[in-house]
Structure formats: C-alpha cells, structure tokens
Amino acid sequence: MTGNSASPHRHALRYSIRHAELDWRVDDGDVEAPFSTAYDDVYFSRQDGREETRFVFIDNNDLPRRLAAWRARRPFTIGETGFGTGLNMLCAWACFDEHAQAEARLHLVSTEKHPLTREALERAWRSWPQLASRAASLIDQWPPAVAGIHRLQLDARVTLDLHFGDAADCLSRLDGQVDAWFLDGFAPSKNPDMWRPELFEAMAAASRPEATFATFTCAGFVRRGLAAAGFRWRKVPGFGRKREMLRGERDESARPASEAISARAATPWFQPPPARPAAHVAVIGAGIAGTSVAAALARRGSRVTLVDRTGIAAGASGNPQAALYVKLAIEPNLQSRFYLAALLYTQRWLARLDPQRRWWSDCGLLQLTGDARGIERQRRFLNLYDLPSTVVSASEAADATSLAGIDLDQAALYYPQAGWVDPVALCHHLAATPGVETHQAELRSLRETESGWQLQLGQSPLRVDQVVFATGHASHDWLDGLPLQSVRGQVSTLALPQQTESGNGPTLERVLCAEGYVMPARDGMLTFGATFSPNDADTTLRESDHRRNLDELARTAPALARQFAGINPASCGGRASVRAASPDKTPYAGPLPDVARWRSNYAALGKDAKRRFDCPGSHYPGLWITTAHGSRGMVSAPLCAELIASRLYDEPMPLERELVDHLHPGRRLIADLIRGR
Ligand code: SAM
C-alpha cells in the first residue's frame, strides 16, 4: 500500500494490485518455468532453481546450523523481498523441517508487488514435485490480489505472512523483526525501483540485532545502500556461473540508540510492552473472542485455562448462525482496512479448521443496495476500493435474484466467499484445541504477583503468567476507564413451512444483509434479525423485537416473508444477547493500558496535540484484552486473536503497524485527551 500518514488521502488506497505478467518458457529438459515479461527476467533458474536457492539464500544465511540450534519460544523469522512463486520460502520450510527441533517454529514474511494468479502458481509448482505437499498448502490458501498482509498457516509450526505491495512500503509498515533476510527480486538493473535506499532502511529497522542477509547480486548501489542502512556486507562466490554474490549482517554499532521506538516516535503510547513468559495463560470469556485467542496461544505452546462463568459460547456468540459480514465505509479508512483484512483472514482460517464445511458455509453473501442513492454509494465504493471480483462485485437485481434463489427487487454487493458460521460449534471446536482446558467459574479477583497474576476463580486460586480478557460487555468490570457500550441484540427463528403439494417454498441460497439479515435455512429453521438496542443489557426475549425482525425480513426478503404473512410474533423462537461496542466501532485488541497513568503522562496533549513524549505507554504487565467486536465478532475476533498471540510470542504482527495501533485499547484515551475531555 502506498501513502504516508501526512497525506490527507492516506487511506484512499487502491486495494487491488496487478498480477504478474508472465510468459512460460520450456528448457531442453522439458522443464517449464515462468518468465516475467514486465521485468524481462526469470523467476528462478530452470536447470537448478532449488540448488540456487539453497546455495544463495539458505546456506549463505547459515540456516541449517541456525535452525538446528534454535531454542527460543518465538519463531525463527525469515524476511524476503519478492515472493514470486514461493520457491525460496518453501525451500526454507523444507530446511526447517530437516534441521529444527520439534518445538521450534518458523515465521516467513515475504513481500510481493505483483502476485501470480493461483493458476500460474499451480503451473509453476509442477516443476517441483518434490515440494508438492508444501506447495499444495500454499496454493490452497493463496489470497486474492488485495494489498496488505495475508497470514497463511502453512502447517502447525510454519506461518507465512504475505505482504502484497511494494517491498520498501510493506517493510516500513512491518510490526515485527527478522532474523534472516532473503534479498531477492528481479536483477537490480531490471528493477531499480525496488532496490532503493528506503528498502534497506526498512530492512534495517526490522532486523534483530544478529540478523543476516544474502542476495544474488553484487551491484554497487545495492552494496552502498546496505552499508548506509547499517549492514556489513562481503562478497562471496556466487552460484553456478555467477562469480560473486553478497552476504552480511546487521552492524550493531550502526544502530541508533533511539531506534527501538523510532517507528512510533510520534505515538509512543502504542509502543508494545516487553515480551514476558507465556507458559500458562488464563483467557477470561469463552465466546468467539476468547476461544479464538485460547486456540491461537495453545497452538504456539501455551497452556491455556479458558474461564467462563456460564460456559462456552453462552453470550453474544451463542446465536444459531452468525454472518461473515462486514460493512465497509464508502471511503477506505483504517477501520475498513482492518475489517477487509479480517474478512479475508477469517475465510481462510475457517477453511483450514473445517474443510468439510460442517459448521460453516461460504455460500456467499449479498448486501442489498437499496434505492438510487444506495446504488450511487455502491458505485463509489467499488471505484474507490477496486477489489477483485473474487472478493466483492456489483450485482444487478436480476443477478442478485438468481444468486439468492429468491426474488429480490434490489441490486446488491456480492461477497462470493462470505457466508455464515455456527458460532457455538466453532467455539467448542476451538476450546477443544490440545493445551486448552476449560473451567466454568466466575473470576472474582486478580492480583499481580512477582512473576505473573493470581486469579480467584470461584473458590479456587490460579496462578498464571498472563491474562487475556475476552469478556465482551462484562469487560466494564475490569476495564476501568475504557469506553465501552452494551448493545442488546435479538435474533428470531422460525421453522419453514412444510412442503406443500405445489412444492417447496422459496429457498434462500446466500446470506442476505440490509438493515437486518437473513440466513439460508439450516435444518428447516430460518434465522433472521437482529435488533440493535444501545445501552440495554437485558437478555429476555421480547415480542416487540420479534415484530421488528419480521418487519425487517419483509423489507429485506419479501419473497421469504410472504410465507409467514399474518404470523403471531410470539410464535417466533429466538435469542437475545448483549454485544459490546467501542465509540468508534473498532474492536479493542492489545495490551491493557494503565488508564490513570496514560491520563497523567499524556495530559499535555490537551494543550498541544503535536507534543512529543519520551515515555512509552504504561500497560498492566501481562494483561491483554480483545473486546468491542459488536455484531461483527465472527469476522474480527480471529484476526484479533492472532494479533494478541503474535505479540505475546514476539512474532511479526498479522497487520500493518498503523492497523495494530488502530486496534489498540488505549486509542480512545489519547483521542479524548486531545479533545480535552
Ligand atoms: N523469490 C522468488 C521465488 O522463490 O520464486 C523469485 C522472485 S522473482 C525473481 C522477483 C519477484 O519480485 C517477482 O515476483 C516480482 O513481482 C517481485 N517484485 C518486483 N518488484 C517488487 C517490489 N518493488 N516489491 C515487491 N516485490 C517485487
């Protein structure tokens, strides 16, 4: 993504990026390989691409030895410029499997400005049958060409973050640190734009103190750029006919003392707290936010005690079906960038968790457009975002009707991979992750100890290293000072009428969303809703709310509602629950700020919003929160869980730095101080 924070149009980014322009070339041995017509260069050597990768990138970063010796609880992290077909990264994965200990993990971060299409990727990988199973994991999860970070879980121990966009741009937004760099990309003479000083500076800023790099090129301006950014380099013999290449490491003496906070120099309150042990973590709240964070931590090796006073998915995550639905602002902003990333992430994550679609469905979702003004807004939205049609596209009323399977009188936005989830089944599935232990109890108190936290759970005490609150609207109890609103929502359910002699009634095939929503029926039951009542925390069912839901159903899907004409609202089933919302409608996900200290440390913002501060944000050590997911938790919670688990394990973050900060639970404190509240 391009744009900088000083620009008034900084969020008016185009999300789609251009695919690679390719030609396929075949060598004497009948091996086919992609060739970039845009850059007039090869992706890899057709004769011995794997050998070249091993020689240049793997051995010259000393990976076999370093991976064998890796004992840290954080993953070994490799950064790359130019993902291409992924040959380098998949070879690094194979090297990791061969050399690393069973407990070790690997994190791959790779940037790519012009990703291959899925078809091209499949075709390229036919050249390397030895890596077929690894390639299949990559191809299965291959993201659409949308700018930003796409996190793929390649296997239980290996994560790949694909940063789609220009390398220097992406790496300057990276919130994470790298142990070894693969400096790839087309030859500097053919692609000078990539090999620019900003790239080397961003690499240096994202390097661990002992980081190394290797690159096939020896070009003078690359050597000078690396040295100026603070890397030591030396020439070593190159691969095959290439006489020389470069390898080197971060020069610690070149690192400015203030660098640790320089990326957040203007916003030191968002500086993350130092990493702490996470051997045993308590997660309070077993809805989608809590169970997804529990599973994310357990996968990384934590023992997790998942605590809930009423059980799994008993609160706002207990509805029969939840829509995978985002309502993106017409003009892109930080919030819409987050929700779009979250939607794409959650779709991939669900497909891995439940490939058979037992408890979720990617049947597609239609967001109805409404009147002429709505159509104009839709047109602007599509123009501004410029997303691929595999993510969202416009659908005229006739097309929307044929997609929905019922008559619709409105145009729509169509999200083909969205759909619905059975959140109760999902939460149970996540709570059953090995390493997670569920405990039904009320959290009565918590006290900081020398090494962590002491909780009182009902009658039993529990000592843990860290605590994550995923307590929805009940987070008020623990979040003194963070603005949070309770919003009651009631869904209604109705059994579909029995089949008649003239056949079945209309069958809805996709999720429909307008002011309300209606799901494709499940086991003969239609779920629709939901009401939205701010500052109301009552969970008793109300007939008046069923009436409202029926009225909304009649507006959204008259063809369905007709079947229930004249029905008494009291005959609806349903469920009411309370969701939590922040004032800006973005979730809170991150470390828990010490509110009183923030207010005193940054009080001067009230007089001067541009004032610079030295002191980083003060956080309760080892306390985290994921809440305020509103009615979009099914989309937002899984990525927020990854964000928290990544921070606890000192890994690269799954979102760009500005989006991580946008989710920070302390952001409203700063906004309020600036406004003098
Ligand atoms: N590492 C790749 C592999 O294992 O297949 C081969 C990389 S290929 C030689 C170079 C890649 O760099 C291409 O995929 C190209 O699209 C990408 N690229 C070129 N310029 C870029 C830039 N400015 N930012 C990010 N990627 C870029």
Bound compounds, each kind once, are: S-adenosylmethionine
Bin the strand percentage: 15-25%
Total discrete domains: 3
What is the number of helical segments per DSSP (H or I, 4+ residues)?
A: 20
Low-confidence stretches: 1-12
Largest sheet: 9 strands, mixed
Task: Tell me the overall shape.
Answer: globular
Structural class: alpha/beta
Q: Note the quaternary state here.
A: single chain
Through-space gap between termini: 34 Å
* Global Rg: 26 Å
What is the CATH topology assignment of the largest domain? Rossmann fold
Total number of strands: 32
CATH homologous superfamily grouping of the largest domain: Vaccinia Virus protein VP39
CATH class placement of the largest domain: Alpha Beta
Mean pLDDT: 92
Give the second-level CATH assignment, the architecture of the largest domain. 3-Layer(aba) Sandwich
Bin the helical content.
25-40%
What does this structure look like?
- The protein is an alpha/beta fold and 677 residues long.
- The chain has 3 domains: 8-260, Vaccinia Virus protein VP39 (Rossmann fold); 278-316 and 425-483 and 584-674, FAD/NAD(P)-binding domain, CATH 3.50.50; 360-422 and 485-581, D-Amino Acid Oxidase, subunit A, domain 2 (D-Amino Acid Oxidase, Chain A, domain 2, 2-Layer Sandwich).
- It is 29% helix and 25% strand.
- The strands form 6 sheets. Strands 16, 17, 18, 25, 26, 27, 28, 29 and 30 form a 9-stranded mixed beta sheet that branches.
- A hairpin with a 5-residue loop joins strand 1 and strand 2.
- Residues 1-12 have low confidence and may be disordered.
- Residues 20, 43-44, 81-88, 111-114, 166-167, 184-186, 191, 193-194 line the site of S-adenosylmethionine.
- Residues 20, 43-44, 81-88, 111-114, 166-167, 184-186, 191, 193-194 line the site of S-adenosylmethionine (SAM).
